[in-house]
Amino acid sequence: MKIRHHLTDDLIMGYSSGTLPEAVNLIVATHVSLCDECRAAVESYDAVGGALVEGSDMVEVSDACLSGALDLIRNGAWSATEARMSAGDDVLPAPLADYVGGTLEDVKWRPVGMGVKQAILPTSDTATARLLYIPAGTAIPDHSHSGMELTLVLKGAFEDDDGRFARGDIEVAHEEVHHTPVADISEDCICLAVTDAPLRFKGLLPRLVQPFVKI
Ligand code: ZN
Ligand code: ZN
Fold first, then answer.
1. Do 194 and 108 fall within a single domain?
2. Residue 185 falls within a domain, yes or no?
3. pLDDT at position 214, please?
4. Cα(177)–Cα(145) distance, rounded to whole angstroms?
5. SS3 of 179, please?
6. CA of 2 to the centre of ligand 1 (A)
7. Which of 18, 27, 77, 183 could bond 189 through an S-S bridge, CB–CB 3.0 to 4.6 Å?
8. Is the same domain home to 133 and 50?
9. Ligand 1 center to residue 51 CA distance, Å?
10. Ligand 2 center to residue 128 CA distance, Å?
11. What does the pLDDT read at residue 68?
12. Mean pLDDT for each consecutive 10-residue tract of the chain (215 residues)?
């Protein structure tokens, strides 16, 4: 798998320092779980952060973690925890599995028109995370953003003015971006999308529907 669209430095830094809203943190963690390049970048930021808080505190934390892990192994809870952490399937990587409550079959889709379905994930409401199901060849109505929109492809692919996005690719769209993503004709597309403000649709109908579908 060749990922061509990556996280910005701001997102990697925010993730490493733990300052991102929950929904943004989730999409970054999901990309990092699929992308060696961004995982390496996160690790180097983590190393810099670790060096800044160097000292005896770090050793104490390590000791606590180690004894906690040993307790888990002794109690036989380790394998169960491990299994829960690594849950996921071909479409949903591990960081997403918990939010969905299992696998792709457990997603509670709601139709939002034109065959498009969404499932809003339970995160704090500073930003919204949703899974989007876009039938092959379908376009999401032309819209712009009043804030940031991050879109990570989990299955299939879509294309817009910024290029083509396939599994693992993440699109970082800001306020000035105005686009109409279209799913590939060959396969249905499943994405994880995160917005920190409502989208603004250009057409009248989507604007009327917007308050109801909460897209
Ligand atoms: Zn990446
Ligand atoms: Zn958009």
1. yes
2. yes
3. 53
4. 7
5. strand
6. 10
7. 183
8. no
9. 24
10. 13
11. 56
12. 91 92 95 96 86 55 55 48 55 92 91 90 90 92 77 95 94 80 94 80 54 52
CA of 41 to the centre of ligand 1 (A): 9
The model's pTM = 0.76
Residue 206 lies in a domain: yes
Ligand closest to Cα of 2 equals 1
The closest ligand to the CA of 31 turns out to be 1
Query: Is 53 inside a domain boundary?
Result: yes
Question: Are 57 and 111 found together in one domain?
Answer: no
Residues in CB range of 4: below 8 A, 6 or more apart: 163, 166, 169
* pLDDT recorded at residue 180: 84
Closest ligand to Cα 202:
2
Among 48, 75, 99, residue at a domain's last position: 99
Choose the final residue of a domain: 75, 99, 123. Answer: 99
Residues 83 and 166 in one domain: no
Cα(33) to ligand 1 centroid in Å equals 9
Q: Quote the ligand 2 centre to 143 CA distance (angstroms).
A: 6
Q: In angstroms, rounded to a whole number, what is the distance separating the alpha carbons of residues 113 and 167?
A: 24
Instruction: Decide: 165 and 171 in contact? Cβ < 8 Å.
Output: yes
Query: Does a structural domain hold residue 54?
Result: yes
Domain range holding 44?
Answer: 9-99
**Residues whose Cβ atom is located within 5 A of ion ligand 2:** 149
